[in-house]
């Protein structure tokens, strides 16, 4: 790969990364099935399924994510993506925010409005997130990028 292909979040996928991308999608399908069957908890964490539309493909996507309460209706999610880059679901969400929906155990997907938190609002939310799940603080320390925190509010 050329250096221009390796920069930023626009990396071309080689055979190995295609395989890992396929594996991740298979794992997402299995986790989504668990969320739908087991009251929305996986490994002791509250989970939701984020519905987005692929920014390039236009195809529907479903991503299992940990969520944190933010008031009565809103949920916070973190775009950690394994540390090195923003996850695909984040780019899909930002490309088509009007197509976002959230699904909880036993419920149909509900349209949602995403809002990326900044400044003091993000810091306050980040504090609550890392108190509830300290692993996020550990992940963040290992990454050179700042994880986006997104508030999802049902429409």
Automatic annotation (TrEMBL):
Taxonomy, superkingdom = Bacteria
What chemistry does it catalyse, as a reaction equation?
A: oxidized coenzyme F420-(gamma-L-Glu)(n) + a quinol + H(+) = reduced coenzyme F420-(gamma-L-Glu)(n) + a quinone
Signal sequence range: none
User: Short name of one Pfam family for this protein?
Assistant: F420H2_quin_red
Q: Which InterPro entries match?
A: F420H2_quin_Rdtase, Split_barrel_FMN-bd
Alphabetized NCBIfam families for the sequence: hi_GC_TIGR00026
Q: Which family does it belong to?
A: Belongs to the F420H(2)-dependent quinone reductase family.
Q: What is this protein called?
A: Nitroreductase family deazaflavin-dependent oxidoreductase
**Taxonomic lineage of this organism?**
Bacteria, Bacillati, Actinomycetota, Actinomycetes, Pseudonocardiales
């Amino acid at each position: 790969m050329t250096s221009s292909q390796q920069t930023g979040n626009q990396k071309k996928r080689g055979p190995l990364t295609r395989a890992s991308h396929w594996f991740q999608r298979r794992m997402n399908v299995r986790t989504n099935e668990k969320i739908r069957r087991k009251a929305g908890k996986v490994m002791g964490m509250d989970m939701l399924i984020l519905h987005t539309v692929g920014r390039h493909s236009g195809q529907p996507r479903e991503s299992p994510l940990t969520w944190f309460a933010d008031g009565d209706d809103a949920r916070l999610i973190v775009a950690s993506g394994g540390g090195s880059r923003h996850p695909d679901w984040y780019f899909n969400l930002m490309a088509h925010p009007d197509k976002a929906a959230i699904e909880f155990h036993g419920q149909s997907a509900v349209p949602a409005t995403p809002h990326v938190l900044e400044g003091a609002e993000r810091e306050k939310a980040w504090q609550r997130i890392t108190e509830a799940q300290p692993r996020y603080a550990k992940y963040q320390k290992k990454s050179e990028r700042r994880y986006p925190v997104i508030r999802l509010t049902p429409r």
